[in-house]
């Protein structure tokens, strides 16, 4: 197995606190050694071991590839008109998802997969090396299983979201739809997924329905995660902690009891500022969560309705500008935080044994991700030890 050193890194973010005592584990004038698909060494350039190959980082910054732990990329069509109308004054509601459901059902497998790959490439070029993605735009047994099957060709982090909204055919009988989601549809979907998710919100699924969905999934070997407290206060966050969900996602409307529950449990709060940006909604309060000791992840929620961005750097900039995060905290949350939200320790950090997933920034430090918003700073990406960008 050949080894490669990436040297002349002016700022290296490792997320390995053993190196400098800080969460980011910063090393100046650093190098990273890769062997096969793994990191085998990090430290000061002058102390790097001999390797077969050498890449010069040119005095730039290297950090772990972004871990985007929340996206909805198996879909067809777009919702430009809805966005345009909303930016002209109309409120966002969960119902717009139906538009995408109709387009997704009508698409061929090849069309759906081509669309998925397009967004994965887009995300990779912006430094994302791991992504989670969900079903939820099929809402029939066949269409949900198809979405998961297609997603599983491209990522290990696949989430069954049959409970995205009540399928239009069941509008008059939501209980029957929950029975389908927790019965026949779950049986068809569980073999293709790692996670189960539910949109716990007024207009989607209430606390009892969400509990039924997540516990049924857990009985089939899927791990829970949840869309919680996005548009209003609700039971989602408390349910997530009670069921030891890996992540409660959105967390925009939280009571003190919700924050306390997150701080006491092991559920990550995943914040998705692209959604608030794209719906002109109030920002989630990251500062409040961090000060309470909650683990926070940052992710794109990339989807055609409420957050049509695949850019983690954009989310980092929003989190720093509008959600009270420091640049260090936002970068940690977009890398190690995302890994925590997926209960992974082999990604989101650059330490011996972790996957060699790295992003090279054309900048003197990671702070530039927030300092220079909208600028394409990503100059290189390695995924599993292979240069991909
Ligand atoms: Zn979502």
From TrEMBL:
<feature type="binding site">
    <location>
        <position position="227"/>
    </location>
    <ligand>
        <name>Zn(2+)</name>
    </ligand>
</feature>
<dbReference type="GO" id="GO:0050480">
    <property type="term" value="F:imidazolonepropionase activity"/>
</dbReference>
<dbReference type="InterPro" id="IPR006680">
    <property type="entry name" value="Amidohydro-rel"/>
</dbReference>
<protein>
    <recommendedName>
        <fullName>Imidazolonepropionase</fullName>
        <ecNumber>3.5.2.7</ecNumber>
    </recommendedName>
</protein>
<feature type="binding site">
    <location>
        <position position="72"/>
    </location>
    <ligand>
        <name>Zn(2+)</name>
    </ligand>
</feature>
<dbReference type="InterPro" id="IPR032466">
    <property type="entry name" value="Metal_Hydrolase"/>
</dbReference>
<keyword id="KW-0408">Iron</keyword>
<feature type="binding site">
    <location>
        <position position="137"/>
    </location>
    <ligand>
        <name>4-imidazolone-5-propanoate</name>
    </ligand>
</feature>
<comment type="similarity">
    <text>Belongs to the metallo-dependent hydrolases superfamily. HutI family.</text>
</comment>
<keyword id="KW-0479">Metal-binding</keyword>
<comment type="function">
    <text>Catalyzes the hydrolytic cleavage of the carbon-nitrogen bond in imidazolone-5-propanoate to yield N-formimidoyl-L-glutamate. It is the third step in the universal histidine degradation pathway.</text>
</comment>
<feature type="binding site">
    <location>
        <position position="70"/>
    </location>
    <ligand>
        <name>Zn(2+)</name>
    </ligand>
</feature>
<feature type="binding site">
    <location>
        <position position="301"/>
    </location>
    <ligand>
        <name>Fe(3+)</name>
    </ligand>
</feature>
<feature type="binding site">
    <location>
        <position position="303"/>
    </location>
    <ligand>
        <name>N-formimidoyl-L-glutamate</name>
    </ligand>
</feature>
<dbReference type="Pfam" id="PF01979">
    <property type="entry name" value="Amidohydro_1"/>
</dbReference>
<feature type="binding site">
    <location>
        <position position="70"/>
    </location>
    <ligand>
        <name>Fe(3+)</name>
    </ligand>
</feature>
<feature type="domain" description="Amidohydrolase-related">
    <location>
        <begin position="61"/>
        <end position="383"/>
    </location>
</feature>
<feature type="binding site">
    <location>
        <position position="301"/>
    </location>
    <ligand>
        <name>Zn(2+)</name>
    </ligand>
</feature>
<feature type="binding site">
    <location>
        <position position="164"/>
    </location>
    <ligand>
        <name>4-imidazolone-5-propanoate</name>
    </ligand>
</feature>
<feature type="binding site">
    <location>
        <position position="227"/>
    </location>
    <ligand>
        <name>Fe(3+)</name>
    </ligand>
</feature>
<keyword id="KW-0963">Cytoplasm</keyword>
<feature type="binding site">
    <location>
        <position position="230"/>
    </location>
    <ligand>
        <name>4-imidazolone-5-propanoate</name>
    </ligand>
</feature>
<feature type="binding site">
    <location>
        <position position="72"/>
    </location>
    <ligand>
        <name>Fe(3+)</name>
    </ligand>
</feature>
<feature type="binding site">
    <location>
        <position position="137"/>
    </location>
    <ligand>
        <name>N-formimidoyl-L-glutamate</name>
    </ligand>
</feature>
<dbReference type="InterPro" id="IPR005920">
    <property type="entry name" value="HutI"/>
</dbReference>
<feature type="binding site">
    <location>
        <position position="79"/>
    </location>
    <ligand>
        <name>4-imidazolone-5-propanoate</name>
    </ligand>
</feature>
<keyword id="KW-0369">Histidine metabolism</keyword>
<comment type="pathway">
    <text>Amino-acid degradation; L-histidine degradation into L-glutamate; N-formimidoyl-L-glutamate from L-histidine: step 3/3.</text>
</comment>
<feature type="binding site">
    <location>
        <position position="306"/>
    </location>
    <ligand>
        <name>4-imidazolone-5-propanoate</name>
    </ligand>
</feature>
<feature type="binding site">
    <location>
        <position position="305"/>
    </location>
    <ligand>
        <name>N-formimidoyl-L-glutamate</name>
    </ligand>
</feature>
<dbReference type="InterPro" id="IPR011059">
    <property type="entry name" value="Metal-dep_hydrolase_composite"/>
</dbReference>
<keyword id="KW-0862">Zinc</keyword>
<keyword id="KW-0378">Hydrolase</keyword>
